[in-house]
């Protein structure tokens, strides 16, 4: 039997060298408010918010050592508005846009690197 759950991805973690700066970057780019958690483990981390009644996948930023640029996995995050507006904020906030928008059947996305060099996909579903 083949394992085929509703959601194969259950969590994501993005390592950053400066947690406060990374929180500011992701808050501005994605128009959100990451929640700083200081009482769960040896290090503080910042959680990406989801609606309380949602079964969506989230994750967090944590103090860590990012993979060298161009070598780590890519985490795709949902744009809060248009792909182009999110790309603009991403670049203005210190990230680097790596690709032009790419269309796929379910939407569009672009690749970027956050200030720590983490590979981030900026994704928007078709309306």
From TrEMBL:
Superkingdom of origin organism: Bacteria
Pfam families: Glyoxalase
Sequence ranges assigned to domain VOC in this UniProt record: 4-125
CDD domains (alphabetical): SgaA_N_like (cd07247)
Entries under PROSITE patterns matching the protein: VOC
Protein name: VOC domain-containing protein
